[in-house]
Amino acid sequence: MQLIGVVQLIFEVYSFILLARVLLSWVQVDPYNPIVRVLHQLTEPVLAPIRRLLPQTGPMDFSPIVAFVALIILERLVISLLASNLR
User: Fold this and answer.
1) What is the 3-state secondary structure (H, E, C) of the chain?
2) Shortest CA distance to 51 belongs to which of 60, 65, 63?
3) What is the distance between the alpha carbons of residues 22 and 15, in angstroms, rounded to a whole number?
4) How many domains is the chain partitioned into structurally?
5) Residue 27, domain extent
6) Taking Cα atoms as reference points, which of 11, 17, 51, 52 lies closest to residue 37?
7) What is the distance between the alpha carbons of residues 86 and 82, in angstroms, rounded to a whole number?
8) Over the stretch 2-29, which tens digit does the pLDDT of each residue have?
9) 29 contact partners, CB below 8 Å, separation of at least 6
10) Which of 24, 31, 39, 64 has minimal CB crowding within 10 Å?
11) pTM score, two decimals?
């Protein structure tokens, strides 16, 4: 059961990183700030492909919403696979 807990923690931490990226996009931040750069480096590999798939909607970026939904689905899938293999 510890493995499932670790997997859940990883998904939760990444969700908070993604949320921080979204919140920082609403305010003016220094793009050279080390924290901002790390958040960007950790989330852009997930968000960029989603942005390419979504149609342009003006100033609104819906890629984080799609990423959150995908993370939830992926987390449930991985946990159910792990749980079925640990029985």
Assistant:
1) CHHHHHHHHHHHHHHHHHHHHHHHHCCCCCCCCHHHHHHHHHHHHHHHHHHHHCCCCCCCCCHHHHHHHHHHHHHHHHHHHHHHHHC
2) 63
3) 11
4) 1
5) 2-86
6) 17
7) 6
8) 999 999 999 999 999 999 999 999 999 9
9) 36
10) 31
11) 0.89
